[in-house]
Structure formats: C-alpha cells, structure tokens
Amino acid sequence: MSRGLLIVFAGASGVGKGTMMKRMLSENVNCRLSISATTRLPREGEQNGREYYFVTREEFQNLIEQNGFLEYAEYVGNFYGTPKKPVFDMLDQGIDVFLEIELKGFLQIKEACPECVSIFVVPPSFEELQLRLQGRGTESAEVIAERLMTAQREMEHQHLFDYVVVNDDVDRAAKEVLSIIAKIKSKEIK
Ligand code: 5GP
After folding, report:
1. Were both Cys, which of 10, 59, 92, 133 would link to 55 (CB 3.0–4.6 Å)?
2. Is 115 a domain residue?
C-alpha cells in the first residue's frame, strides 16, 4: 500500500474552501480533512472536534511545547495549528489528507514535507470575495477588513503553490481539485 498524499488546500478567508471541501470529501472516500486546533471562538453551528478543536491559548501553548503540531500560525489575532500525529497516522494508512491552512502554515509544511501537493483557491475577483465575507455575516466589520487585507497579501503569494484553482462555481472547482489529485496519483502530473 502506498503512503497517502499530503495536500495543502489554501486560499483567502471567504473564498469557499469549506464548501468545496465538503463536496470533495463526499466524492472521494480516500480523502480526509485534518482537524486543526484553534484559539478562535466557535462560530454559530460549529462543533468542537468537527470543524476544529477549540482550545484555550494555554492549551495551544502546551501543544506547541509538546511538539504536537506539524505547523502552526497566528492569523488575525488567533492561533491555528495542525495536530501532527493524526495526519501521519492517516498518511501511513494510505489515506490522502487535506490541510485547510493559511499561508504561513503552508510555508512551514513546504519546508517540512516538500513532497506535499499545494492548491490555492482564488475568488473570481476581489470584489466577489468582499461580498462573500460581508454576506456571511459571521465577523465584525473590523475583522472583515483585516481578513480582506490578509487575503490580498496571501493572493500575492499564489505563485508559491503547485496549482491555483478559481472558485467560480463550487461543483466545478471541487471537481477540478479532485481531477488534479487523481492525475497526481496516477503519476500523469506532479
Ligand atoms: P477561520 O477562522 O475562517 O476558520 O480560519 C482562518 C484561516 O485559518 C483560514 O485561512 C484557514 O484555512 C486557516 N487555518 C485553519 N486551520 C489552520 C491550521 O491548522 N493551521 C494554519 N496555519 N492555518 C489554519
């Protein structure tokens, strides 16, 4: 059995990564999403252990000290990190693992696991992203402004990723990502 593929799935906040991910997971049984730990408070409808492990700053700090993260980063005032062991366990079992992470985390993964495949999702336009973030209504105007500034900065680094996918339509974009993964696995492309 071959080792699973580690796939970094990044893109601006509000670009629709979460919805794309749900489609991809439902269509490809050999893929899982790594569940991150975060110090951010849960949004309405989010459950501990499903979207994230919601932890205190102290618990997050302890995990850092125990070398429990594959990567971690601060993003708009909160910490986010990928627990190391579950990811390695899944890869060893031949399962492909998605990491839905931001840019600083990706740069750490690229360094630690250069064999990873990286995909960056972009919106059809920056205006569209602004509308989506405002329409979501889950963040204050101040946080939205900060997330948009971070998005702009992240989008300037999209050339560092192996693939860039435009989320103009969730079904189409999710299919494109799955097709990239299938081609890599059949060694048609890197
Ligand atoms: P949100 O607060 O919208 O759920 O996530 C904010 C940003 O943090 C998103 O870009 C998301 O992909 C990223 N993120 C989520 N989990 C992790 C993680 O474990 N590590 C890093 N570096 N970023 C993460």
Report:
1. 59
2. yes
